[in-house]
């Protein structure tokens, strides 16, 4: 099995960092090799307040704009929330859904992940659906079960045609922001389980089209080995995506 036919994706998740001016400076510092890159496809996910600045400073590049979260309703009395239509309007093509920090701190559930994924697909946003186990779940040898259930519930009531457009990100919670990186072979094994689960929810052909990223303390010195794994189609990069130099090194992993 090879990932050659799937165009890799490198997505940067800025979390709650950078203001408008810092966003402008980041994009100005990116080399042309990143600004014009199409293989891998490069997605940047700034905070909501920086989306407009990011879009302006992406002008003329192949970079894609993503949001870090969204509500599943088109509009309504949901104070503090952002709708898929608002994201489309500002120029987003992608949206992170179900990041472990959203699950851990803000009440995200498998049910809301499914509703958000359906809504994103309805409005032609590409969802990057995050799944992964906590440290205690890994130590209890529950990794496979946790990931399978998260994928199954995320894909409820979604057609094969739309499943093929979804991007998954395997993010072991214990490796996010901790400096700990999941062993590449183990990360590949779990990404393979995600692909098998997608196949069960659709079919093998659809599963072969789905791109699966690894996330969890991804750095320039680890990306090449991770990308050599057959089931890993890219990376969801946290801290290293905040610095233009380190992010560029990750994008230019070949």
* Average pLDDT figure: 95
Supply the number of structural domains: 1
Query: Order of strands across the biggest sheet?
Result: 1-2-3-4-5-6-7-8
Percentage beta strand = 5-15%
Question: Cα-atom Rg, whole angstroms?
Answer: 17 Å
Q: Assign the CATH architecture.
A: Alpha-Beta Barrel
Shape: globular
Sheet with most strands: 8 strands, parallel, barrel
Helicity level: 40-55%
The CATH topology name reads TIM Barrel
SSE topology string: EHHEHEHEHHEHHHEHHEHEH
Q: What would you note in describing this structure?
A:
The mean pLDDT is 95. The two termini are 20 Å apart. 41% of the residues lie in helices and 15% in strands. It has an 8-stranded parallel barrel with strand order 1-2-3-4-5-6-7-8, surrounded by 5 helices. The chain has helices at residues 20-29, 32-35, 51-57, 84-90, 100-105, 110-122, 135-139, 143-154, 160-163, 184-201, 204-209, 223-227, 244-251; strands spanning 9-13, 41-45, 64-67, 94-97, 126-131, 167-170, 211-215, 234-237. It has a single domain (9-251), classed as Aldolase class I (TIM Barrel). By secondary structure, it is an alpha/beta fold. Strand 2, helix 3 (51-57) and strand 3 form a beta-alpha-beta unit.
